Amino acid sequence: MQQTALHAPPQRRVLPWMTIPALAMAALAFWVLAPAFDYRLPGDPANPVGNPFHFWVITTAGVLALVVGLLMSEAGRRRADARVLLLAYGLLSAAAAVLLHALATPNVLQPGRNIGFVIAAPVGLVMAAAFLAASALELRPEQSRAIVAWQGLISAAVLAFWALFGLLALLKLPPFTLAPDPEVVDIPLFFCVIGLTPAPLVQWPGTLALTGATGLYGFAAIRYLALFRQRPGLVPLALATASVILAVIAVNVGFARTWHLSWWQWHGLIVLAVGLLAFAVYRQVRSEGSTRPVFDSLYLEETVGRIREEYSTALESLVATLQQREAGVAPAVPAVGAAVAARFGLSEGQVAVLERAAEALAHEREQIERLGALVAIGQESSVIQEEFRLLGQALGLSSAAFRNDAFQIGLVQEGQLDFSTGLRAGPTLPPLDAATRARLLGTALRDRQPAEEGGVLVLPLTVKGRPAGVLEVRRDQGGFAERDRWLLRSLATQLSVSLENARLYRQIDQLFRQYMPESVATALIADPAQAALGGATRTISVMFADLRGFTSLSERLSPPELVQLLNRYYGAAAQVVLAEGGTIDKFMGDAMMALFNAPSQQPDHALRACRAALAMQRAIAPLIAEAPDMPRFGIGVNTGEALVGNIGSEAIRNFTAIGDTVNLASRLQTRAEGGQVLINASTYAQVRDQVDATPLGRLQVKGKEEPVEVFLLRGMR
Q: How far apart are the first and last CA of the chain?
């Protein structure tokens, strides 16, 4: 919502508007205290010519109030806002009272005096005060909805009241059958309250009503000044000022003497109050170019939130239309802009600003989406995966970000540029001229610089500074904007890095995995600092496995046959250890050492070690079935603290674990017979609920002064 605001600070804006009410109160106080100076001006109701000046002044005020009230009524109805509706009822009531006051001017449109001439304005002031004070409240949502729901009935009641009042007053029907005595008219109403005059009893209700109206106008003025500080705008400030002036008028009516200076003062003030409000509305209309947003600064918070949501929805729809138009599947934007203008009452200038804002927002979101694609490609390149799959994923992300562009990647294979059908994405475009394409591709590969012509952009892909391929981007219409060109160059750079990383990962992965466990290789690739000498103490589970009877078997087999047999055993055993996430530390002839919870964290490392040990025995069962005298694994598992890290020298090192926990696991393995798995008490304590184990008591093992408690692991529960 756009608001017209004055340029001074809020406090300085308010003071000039409050000067006139202050001066009016000072003048009224002077006339009350010095009635001799409250001169009587021409305008005797007995004058057959009447007082046309009074008629036209009051009529002008009534017409202005009527126009502003109707505008407020339309805005309140359109926005379903209870505050503006109540303001409209107050202004329309004031307009009706003022117009009746004008029509009842003696000897202008009707002969003689009329009691409606006396009481129409005070009644209107009281009614307007009630509506204005009610509008100043911060209504709860349910109250607001109730007022909006009953707006038709309220409007009908206000209209019926003033129609009946006017008819009875103008026709001098009861209770307006007698014209007031001139002396009664000249007695200030408020004088009866303080006992300065023996006023008739009929004046008491009017006096009390005007007193209440003064308080209500004061309350409304305070509330609208607070609203002005919250939403600085001309209309809330004018409304707060008008409320102060109307409060002064309510006092002025009570103290004024008919046809005297004090009486004429409140006539001028009511013109001023309504005129200020009308002027603020006029300025707002000129500023906005439309009547619809004029009262936006007055709406309840609930209405303001609803309007913001509607504007946001309209902007989102315009942004979506712009994006669809670029894709060639949406109507022209002016048609959408015209629909938005009709919905919100916007001027052509405002619609143009909204369209520019929507276009800027659409481009910003498009850029964010494209930058997001670059980030996603970078994240994909950080994962070890095959380069063809990596490039395919990158093309998919790029195509989603550059919807109207066709992408294709060509890779240098054996000195030739090969465009695989799997490395294409985006819309299918007509074939490019062969000579043009060859020239662009040659420039990109030879000079390693982007080559562009029309709607074709060819970007080189490099690995270690050497040509590795090209990224070809095509669009059907128009060339590439500068921002698109730089984004696509960044994309090509990211693809080059991804391609180089994929090939480097593949080489390192193949090299490392020939000599060390996969988990260790992966950890070293992610953090090369882990290859430094040294280690840390941590709790692990260690498994030692040794082939029982292998020594006697080796006497009967040749060395090649022994190697072949060991490879079959270790092939089956290593597979199940790796499946449980274990790290194979080393092979030692016919023995194997494996670690769990190193280097990667495994909270259930003891359970993993037990499962792997049992699975190893099952994995070699087919080998034993071939010949009953084939060796079996004797396995020992222990859990405890050990120093885990890289042991060795700067020239050569080994990732392993050392400590008493490792030694005890080795000793348990020596006590295990072929086909058995022995575990220590520390391991059993962590897996007792998951395994089936038989206690073997306390056994003496080499290197230990005290016997250790040992369990025979039979299976998993």
A: 70
